[in-house]
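[job 4471] stage=fold_predict status=RUNNING
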Amino acid sequence: MAAPIGHGGSGALGPRHWASLLLLLAAAAAAAGGSDGDHVVEFDVRPGGVVHSFSQSHAKAGEHTCTFTYASQGGTNEQWQMSLDLSDDNRLLTCIIWRPQGKSYLFFTQFKAEVQGAEVEYGMAYSKASTGKDADIPLKPEEFEVTNTAVIHRQGAFRAELSKVVIVARIGHVEL
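[job 4471] inference complete, writing structure tokens
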């Protein structure tokens, strides 16, 4: 279900990397489940077909920023949240964008969740976010793509439903 970006000769992450990602994702899932941590910011997702962006930087993350860019139609403003956190060793940046009520009633014509100053190791998008009693429902793999810096809708394949995006990115030197 996950959409990791592989690095190295084989294109796969090593066991140590997967363990780090799983621990970080568990903490991120707890934050998305309603934690009111220090780095959770509320913002309005506004319909109208116009492209909007919302960005957040983390005081400890320096030049690292997470930006959510989207266009949506239908309904009225919805309250969403963005969390941006660093791992204890300051090597992984986690950005989660979600609708706390679980399901968005807006129709998204496009979306892009992007990190600056870090390289995406894991990215996922969901049509429904967990509200505590039910699980996240991921988008189909053909509906979005994960690049080195972003999770982006796929034109013509994205079915306009979005309620959550998760990015885990590595900070620091990347070997060529």
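[job 4471] summary: The chain has one helix and twelve strands.
[job 4471] exit 0
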